[in-house]
């Protein structure tokens, strides 16, 4: 695999570039003399030109290409933009301010996206509505279809998705290990660090007091999830915090689990008012009760994704610490399969539309 090409005679600048590349998991080809860069210029996935050699590089007449960046450690240099044009760069990166962007560029080359993961958020209309069970069911169903799936527990007061799945003793990182994370995260490193069971990877909380999830940490995790997984399911708290807002903004749909009774609908309406401005589509999943599904969805002004009856066998299994039973004959299993089929159809329609 070809590596990014760096062209500079400035040893201090080169040290900075090597450090940033190492943090991004990228290896570099380095040319100290512009003439030595010519054999690598066209085939390198990206080229970083130091401002110290920009004019000399331009004098060699390199062919036009994409993903060329001019890097400088002197943000006050009035000649920078002339050099940018001369060398055919598409951007000027001033260090150290632009180190994060440069790291992202290096990481894109070192680890290009292998998936285009869809994000689905699940939220309970009130406590005990069953949102966490639904989130786990969707993730398990997706993984059993041999799709790489990331299940994210974003509700610190939810009791723990690892416990729900009977995996509270599983080795691997939890949110407390990632809350300080900013910038790009390798999806292969994320999957390797987290508890993974076949095609299902889980990010949950440690037992005890849970720290709030910073929006930046959620952004890093979801970026990695969308690059490296087929589906990302996020179990959200009912009151959207900054991390929940980050997840909602990426969701293809948010599923609001509503119990079909008056208090359940009123509570869900409050939750809905808090999330509606942060996501493009919200659909109701109706837990069977005294109200008809149509009454529930009309009251909320939200389309119905389906309904789920009470399942005594499911609750018994969960209380025993068993994995949620989501076989073909269970209501939860049928709902999850139908919903995932609809996601596949939506993705296919978008792909077909993009190709016309």
From TrEMBL:
<feature type="domain" description="Rv3660c-like CheY-like N-terminal">
    <location>
        <begin position="7"/>
        <end position="114"/>
    </location>
</feature>
<dbReference type="Pfam" id="PF06564">
    <property type="entry name" value="CBP_BcsQ"/>
</dbReference>
<dbReference type="InterPro" id="IPR017746">
    <property type="entry name" value="Cellulose_synthase_operon_BcsQ"/>
</dbReference>
<dbReference type="InterPro" id="IPR027417">
    <property type="entry name" value="P-loop_NTPase"/>
</dbReference>
<dbReference type="InterPro" id="IPR059050">
    <property type="entry name" value="Rv3660c_N"/>
</dbReference>
<dbReference type="Pfam" id="PF26563">
    <property type="entry name" value="Rv3660c_N"/>
</dbReference>
<dbReference type="InterPro" id="IPR022521">
    <property type="entry name" value="Rv3660c"/>
</dbReference>
<dbReference type="GO" id="GO:0009898">
    <property type="term" value="C:cytoplasmic side of plasma membrane"/>
</dbReference>
<dbReference type="GO" id="GO:0005829">
    <property type="term" value="C:cytosol"/>
</dbReference>
<dbReference type="GO" id="GO:0016887">
    <property type="term" value="F:ATP hydrolysis activity"/>
</dbReference>
<protein>
    <submittedName>
        <fullName>Chromosome partitioning protein</fullName>
    </submittedName>
</protein>
<dbReference type="InterPro" id="IPR050625">
    <property type="entry name" value="ParA/MinD_ATPase"/>
</dbReference>
<dbReference type="GO" id="GO:0005524">
    <property type="term" value="F:ATP binding"/>
</dbReference>
<dbReference type="GO" id="GO:0051782">
    <property type="term" value="P:negative regulation of cell division"/>
</dbReference>
């Amino acid at each position: 695999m070809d590596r990014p090409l760096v062209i500079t005679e400035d040893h201090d600048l080169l040290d900075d570039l090597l450090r940033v590349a190492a943090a991004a998991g990228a290896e570099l080809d380095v040319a100290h003399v512009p003439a030595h860069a010519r054999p690598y210029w066209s085939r390198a996935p990206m080229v970083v030109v130091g401002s110290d050699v920009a004019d000399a590089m331009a004098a060699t007449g390199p062919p036009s290409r994409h993903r060329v960046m001019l890097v400088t450690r002197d943000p006050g240099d009035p000649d920078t933009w002339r050099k940018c044009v001369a060398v055919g760069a598409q951007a000027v990166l001033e260090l150290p301010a632009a180190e994060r962007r440069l790291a992202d560029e290096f990481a894109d080359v070192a680890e290009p996206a292998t998936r285009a993961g869809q994000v689905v958020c699940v939220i309970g209309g009130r406590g005990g509505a069953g949102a966490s069970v639904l989130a786990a069911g969707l993730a398990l169903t997706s993984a059993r279809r041999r799709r790489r799936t990331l299940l994210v527990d974003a509700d610190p007061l939810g009791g723990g998705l690892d416990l729900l799945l009977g995996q509270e003793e599983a080795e691997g990182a939890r949110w407390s290990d990632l809350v300080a994370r900013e910038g790009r995260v390798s999806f292969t490193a994320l999957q390797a660090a987290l508890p993974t069971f076949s095609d299902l990877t889980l990010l949950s909380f440690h037992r005890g007091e849970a720290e709030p999830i910073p929006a930046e940490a959620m952004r890093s995790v979801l970026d990695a999830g969308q690059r490296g997984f087929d589906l990302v399911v996020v179990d959200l708290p009912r009151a959207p915090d900054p991390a929940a807002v980050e997840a909602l903004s990426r969701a293809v749909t948010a599923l609001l689990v509503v119990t079909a009774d008056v208090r359940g609908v009123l509570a869900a309406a409050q939750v809905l008012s808090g999330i509606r401005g942060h996501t493009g589509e919200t659909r109701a999943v109706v837990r069977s009760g005294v109200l008809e599904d149509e009454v529930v969805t009309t009251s909320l002004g939200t389309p119905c994704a389906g309904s789920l009856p009470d399942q005594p066998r499911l609750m018994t299994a969960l209380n025993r610490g068993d994995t949620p039973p989501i076989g073909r004959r269970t209501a939860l299993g049928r709902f999850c399969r139908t919903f995932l089929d609809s996601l596949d159809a939506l993705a296919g329609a978008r792909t077909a539309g993009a190709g016309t």
